[in-house]
Amino acid sequence: MALRVIGSVYRTSSVIPNFSLSSCRYLLENRTILQKYVRTTAVSNTTLKKSSNDDEILTPNGYRLDLSFNNYEEAYRSKSFVELLRGLLVFKLCSWDYMVDNNEKLMKFAQKWLGKTLFEKIMKMTVYGHFVAGKDHQDIKPAIHKLGQYGVKSILDYSAEEDLISEEEAVRAEMDACVPSTDMSKKSPFYMKRFEAHEEFGDRRDHVISARTFFYMNEAHCEKNLDIILRCIDAVSGATNSTGFAAVKVTALGRPQLLLQLSLIVVRMREFFRMLAEDTSYNIFQATVPKIKRDQFLVKMMKMGMEEAKCHEFFSMMDADLDNEIDLFEWEKLLNMKENMSQYFQLPNPKTGKLEPIIAPLTDEEQEQFQNMLRRINIIAEHATFRNVRIMVDAEQSYFQPAINRLVIELMRRFNHEKSIIFNTYQCYLKGAYDSIKMDLEFAKRSDFFFGGKLVRGAYMEQERARAKGLGYADLICPTYDATNEMYIKVVDLCMQHILERRQQKVAIMLATHNENTVRMVIKKMEEYGIGPQDKVICFGQLLGMCDQVSFSLGQAGYSVYKYVPYGSVDKVIPYLSRRAQENKSLLQGAVKERQLLVSEVKRRIRNFEWSRRPPPATPQGTPPPPAMPHASSPRAV
Predict the structure, then answer these.
(1) Which of 46, 301, 346, 540 is the 20 to 30 A CA-CA neighbour of 174?
(2) Picking from 176-190, 207-221, 478-492, which range would have the lowest pLDDT averaged per residue?
(3) Can you name the residues that pair with 293 across neighbouring β-strands?
(4) What's the mean pLDDT in 218-225?
(5) What is the maximum alpha-carbon separation in the chain?
(6) Could you please report the per-residue DSSP string of 375-425?
(7) Is residue 9 classed as helix, strand or coil in its secondary structure?
(8) Rounded to whole angstroms, how far apart are CA atoms 200 and 471?
């Protein structure tokens, strides 16, 4: 009977059609990542290759880790027999074009004819139950506890969303929120199309395949988002015993126009520093950063038209260590001041020679909004520190990212004193990814705070390329997938070098990837650098309900691994997931390995009569090797 049920899942096209419509964003959003994941992990429809000795490593806890990730018993050790069948059903439903293409109609039909109660029950038995942990911080505790039993920790994300707004409403909201009261002339030499809102790209949901989008409505709405994040932090603390993360997006906390203006300041400020340092190369983050002496600064600025007294005032404000020299890292601290920055950030107009501000002065209302955004960010960091919960700040579009990076690094400097509480996200599909994280690692080293970073390939590639082409500025994305891989490896090497150099868990890195080749690469590099899983400075992250063959194998082998765990009530989560299913119908087509592993585990349990119970957590095998990376005792990083 059980085998016939499995067969019907694969053969029948009429099995509960209404229940693919939510198809969880934690799968459907990640098209780019998952397409690569499917391509690099696909196996035969009939057999799974057995791992050889070369595919195994013996971890410090005595566990033999199968690096082929074909061990379906280990992959699904945490799942009951019914959960395995549900997984097969969900993956099959998500692969049918008709259901995904028509999910909105099917949703309305199901809600109308089944009623709210029955509809929610069926959703919990299928897609919602597979990809969402529960409705609130109490409801998710069993799922979090079960993950923890098998060595997997959690990143919580409250995924409830307001009713979907139309494209027209999204564009209107974005333009209202991104156009400053006092606009800079497009004739200004400091104007950059990249950091201005454009109506044709106003709906930031377009072509976005792995990220939630927040639109600014008003300050009260931002306060509501703040309250949700604070409750999420409390949920992490209570449900995970302070071992988990809470996910945060900065665009949920303030007016995006302010991020655009701050990003423009950051970019122009660094260009200005290159000019002062007489270093016009793209990569100015060499081992010895050029210093600018006070006399040198005065000469250059006075030639540009700035008064001598103002030059001394400007220099003294940036000279944090009072050594009469400044460099890029001290220059960055200028952004921390609360005064109107436009009066200091002036450059000579190439045509007139007259000093002009980089940005227009903020109005009183905009200044208040900026301070509100900073206040909300600080409240989150303070509350997370108090609750001993780590914050994962997600990456966003490249035109917001310079500002977000700067704000997050400042949070690290303020709050990462005893361990990594604040984590930033670095998108390795960006051409400047290596330079960005190198500067931040150097700043953390120089300022002696703990550094936390999450490495991803990137979520906005299609949108970024379309925007750059449409507006006529340089594409910031690596030209090919191979180039992105090279950047990823280069960044991983840099992070591991800093881990060894600083020791004492001063650098913590999360690799958020479903790509098995990437996971294997990182594990092998850990061995090369002498970094062991017991050091807890490198961790891995995957989505709940996806890539279990990687997550649970790593977790039981003693590696630090996390699941990205969404939660929220069915009626709040489904609308958002419905739109994602419609936009990303191709994500799960061809996920051969995932389904094949599920089928193999179901057959194994039937043969062994393990229908009514799940296997216990794995026990160590063999003699564990010695510890990998000796270091002084300190709080664990990840």
Answers:
(1) 346
(2) 176-190
(3) 325
(4) 93
(5) 88
(6) HHHHHHHHHHHHHT-EEEEPP--TTTHHHHHHHHHHHHHHH-SSS--EEEE
(7) helix
(8) 10
Provide the 3-class DSSP secondary structure of residue 356: strand
What distance, in Å, lies between the first and last C-alpha atoms of the chain? Answer: 44
| Residue 567 contacts residue 159 (beta carbons within 8 Å) | yes
Kindly state the tokens that stand for 157. 């994300």
- CA dist., res. 294 & res. 272, Å (int): 16
Amino acid, single-letter form, for residue 219: E
Instruction: Answer whether 94's CB lies under 8 Å from 86's CB.
Output: no
Burial class (CB in 10 A: 0-12, 13-18, 19+), 239: buried
Q: How far apart are CA 206 and CA 174, in angstroms?
A: 13
The pTM assigned to this predicted structure is 0.84
Whole-angstrom distance, CA of residue 20 vs CA of residue 38 = 20
Helix (H), strand (E) at residue 542: strand 538-543
pLDDT, position 268: 82
Decide if 340 contacts 362 (C-beta within 8 A): yes
Q: Compute the average pLDDT of residues 470-494.
A: 94
Whole-angstrom distance, CA of residue 325 vs CA of residue 319: 7
Q: What CA–CA distance (Å, rounded) separates 407 from 167?
A: 30
Closest C-alpha to 408, from 257, 228, 266? 266
